[in-house]
From TrEMBL:
<feature type="transmembrane region" description="Helical">
    <location>
        <begin position="218"/>
        <end position="235"/>
    </location>
</feature>
<feature type="transmembrane region" description="Helical">
    <location>
        <begin position="282"/>
        <end position="299"/>
    </location>
</feature>
<keyword id="KW-1003">Cell membrane</keyword>
<dbReference type="GO" id="GO:0005886">
    <property type="term" value="C:plasma membrane"/>
</dbReference>
<keyword id="KW-0808">Transferase</keyword>
<keyword id="KW-1133">Transmembrane helix</keyword>
<keyword id="KW-0472">Membrane</keyword>
<keyword id="KW-0350">Heme biosynthesis</keyword>
<keyword id="KW-0812">Transmembrane</keyword>
<comment type="function">
    <text>Converts heme B (protoheme IX) to heme O by substitution of the vinyl group on carbon 2 of heme B porphyrin ring with a hydroxyethyl farnesyl side group.</text>
</comment>
<dbReference type="InterPro" id="IPR000537">
    <property type="entry name" value="UbiA_prenyltransferase"/>
</dbReference>
<feature type="transmembrane region" description="Helical">
    <location>
        <begin position="118"/>
        <end position="136"/>
    </location>
</feature>
<feature type="transmembrane region" description="Helical">
    <location>
        <begin position="157"/>
        <end position="180"/>
    </location>
</feature>
<feature type="transmembrane region" description="Helical">
    <location>
        <begin position="241"/>
        <end position="262"/>
    </location>
</feature>
<feature type="transmembrane region" description="Helical">
    <location>
        <begin position="24"/>
        <end position="43"/>
    </location>
</feature>
<feature type="transmembrane region" description="Helical">
    <location>
        <begin position="49"/>
        <end position="69"/>
    </location>
</feature>
<feature type="transmembrane region" description="Helical">
    <location>
        <begin position="95"/>
        <end position="112"/>
    </location>
</feature>
Length: 304
């Protein structure tokens, strides 16, 4: 006698929301919004809202497709086992359809309502995260975060392009800031969850090269990140509000990164400096992008 395969209960809205990785989306939307508000020209509030909505939907689509593809390793890693797919609250086909539908809608809406430049960059960012990072790099090379970090760096470019219809040096430097920020940010996390990655067979740098090499790389990547963060000020692209904020917050980031880079630790260590760097790195981006907008609106009076 054959037994029927039990059907999964229908997923509710909270499961679909979880697929979009809302905590990650918050930072993505914020940097995209700041890129838009820092642009030298204004944008109609309705179009601005539409652009930010498209950035949020595009980020959510990338998160959903990432979880669709990585359902097998998510089921192994402790920090991801409660996600909708490994927890059995949703089937993979639903996640795939949801992700593809969300991605298509976000790009089409951006193209129709805003402009083709912003839509093109949004499409590239989604495809980069899904195809380059998730499918190609993550399971193959410890450089996955280095190259794949570009995916999360696109929102300032998208926001700027939504307002202006083009890209410029300042949003490119903001792209480079996020791109160079990603390795020390993510490797700090990887240091205290490396067992998860090892069990799942994901070649994160601490698993492949060890803690010492990872700590060194965190210190090294902080140097060009700091340059990208401060450079807009001496180039005359921003004013003193951004310049001093970027200088001070980046100095704190560098101190935390140096503490991690120069530290020797055993397996029994609680990794407090690594957790401190990881937590501060998130606050750092919020503050520095907020300063970018404050600099533009307070020094320029909010005028175009």
């Amino acid at each position: 006698m054959s037994t029927a395969t039990p059907l999964l209960p229908p997923a509710d809205w909270r499961d679909f929301l979880a697929l979009t990785k809302p905590r990650v989306m918050t930072l993505v939307v914020f940097t995209g919004l700041c890129g838009m508000l820092a642009a030298p020209v204004g944008i109609h509030p309705v179009l601005g809202f539409t652009a930010i909505l498209c950035i949020a939907l595009g980020a959510g689509a990338a998160g959903a497709l990432n979880q669709w593809y990585e359902a097998d390793i998510d089921a192994i890693m402790r920090r991801t086992q409660k996600r909708p797919l490994p927890a059995g609250r949703m089937d993979r086909q639903s996640a795939l359809h949801f992700g593809v539908g969300l991605a298509s809608f976000s790009v089409i809406l951006m193209f129709v309502a805003v402009n083709w430049t912003a839509a093109a960059i949004l499409a590239v960012s989604i495809l980069f995260y899904v195809l380059i990072y998730t499918v190609w790099l993550k399971r193959r090379t410890p450089q996955n975060i280095v190259i794949g970090g570009a995916a999360g760096a696109f929102p300032p470019l998208i926001g700027w392009a939504a307002a202006t219809g083009q890209v410029a040096l300042l949003p490119f430097l903001m792209f480079m800031l996020v791109f160079l920020w990603t390795p020390p940010h993510f490797w700090a996390l990887a240091l205290f969850v490396k067992t998860d990655y090892a069990n799942a067979g994901v070649p994160m740098l601490p698993v492949v090269a060890g803690e010492r090499a990872t700590r060194t790389q965190i210190g090294l990547y902080t140097i060009p990140m700091a340059v990208a963060a401060v450079l807009p000020w001496p180039l005359g692209l921003t004013g003193a509000i951004y310049g001093w904020t970027a200088s001070l917050t980046t100095a704190v980031f560098a101190l935390f990164a140096a503490h991690v880079a120069l530290r020797h630790t055993g397996a029994e260590d609680k990794m407090t400096p690594e957790k401190r760097l990881f937590s501060y790195s998130i606050l750092y981006l919020f503050v520095i992008f907020g300063a970018l907008v404050a600099d533009r609106w307070l020094l320029a009076g909010g005028s175009a």
